[in-house]
Amino acid sequence: MHKIKLGKMELDSPVIPASGVFGYGDELKGLIDYKKIGAIVTKTLTIKERKGNPQPRIWELENGLLNTIGLQNIGVERFCEEKLPVIKKLKKPVIVSIGGETDDEILLCLEYISKKDIEAIELNLSCPNIAGRNLISENPEATYNIIKQARKITRSFLIAKLSPNVTDVGETGSAAEEAGTDALCAFNTFKGLTFDWKNHKVILGGVSGDAIFPLSCRLVHQLYQNVSIPIIGIGGIHSPETGLLMILCGATIIGIGTSLMINPDLPGEILNEIKKYKKEKNIKKWDEIVGRKARFF
Q1: Which residues have a catalytic role annotated?
Q2: CATH of the domain at 241
Q3: In the predicted model, what is the mean pLDDT of the chain?
Q4: Are 19 and 163 in contact (CB under 8 A)?
Q5: Count of domains in the chain?
Q6: Helix axis angle, 169-179 to 140-153, nearest 10°
């Protein structure tokens, strides 16, 4: 594979881990071939340490998972002191995901992390597991406002992580692009519900896994029709074929979440599928494959 440009970053692979399944970047050493992934993506960090929601908080579904983790993390300061020096040694671009309960918390976190040597920052505007607030990226105006403020704080490569739980992803994506984000991460988990029969209570959370792939792929295709900036396609990729299809439908690079925990070799399998397709179709440049299927619709 030729290196893939994303801003100033050069990725060895178009496959990256989704935020939340890779810990702080080094936990899966020995399990995953880092040569097969393009970048390290951290779990979402907040300005202060968070314990997250009480256990249990991961529920297995027939074709996926429902999680209510609640952004458990050690906080951005401890991350920079304890984790960042370690993952820098892995010689991969680092994408740090940040979030918070309020706009001010997100922006404070951004201000702190922007002073570090980080290749890219993901603004998690779409975590469905924070109580007490509406998701920023469910509202185009709110999305525009926070990215506009973020752009004044940093010159770092910004990625806005959007929610699929909206009427029109194109409207939200366009607002984010207009405000100055450099790329879009599409998408976070779908809001879902399961039932705890043991304790007889309803569980609300974010749904991921195989079952959401057709939904995610359609939304990435829709987003691709409305924006001109790179899209990181995420949501239900579980096989070499689904990884390739997400790219054909408009994703510049793709992220793997739930299935990476099941099959650590999946990034390499997807790479092989992409190489095979490029050879069959005599595709030389990466731009020729991104959105190729979307143009056929």
Answers
A1: 127
A2: 3.20.20.70
A3: 92
A4: no
A5: 1
A6: 20
Amino acid at 2: H
Burial bucket for residue 215 (CB in 10 Å: 0-12, 13-18, 19+): middle
Residues 40/87, Cβ–Cβ less than 8 Å: yes
Give residue-wise pLDDT tens across range 82-102: 999 999 998 899 999 999 989
Q: Give SS3 for 272.
A: helix
Instruction: Give the residue numbers spanning the domain of 280.
Output: 4-296
pLDDT at 146: 97
Please name the amino acid found at residue 84: L
**Structure token pair of residue 178:** 């207009």
Residue 66 has phi, psi (to 5 degrees) of -120, 125
Q: Is residue 220 within 8 Å of 246, Cβ to Cβ?
A: yes
Q: Is the pTM of this model over 0.90?
A: yes
Question: Is residue 239 a contact partner of residue 256, using CB atoms and an 8 Å limit?
Answer: no
CA nearest to 224, candidates 273, 187, 266, 267:
187
Amino acid residing at 186: A
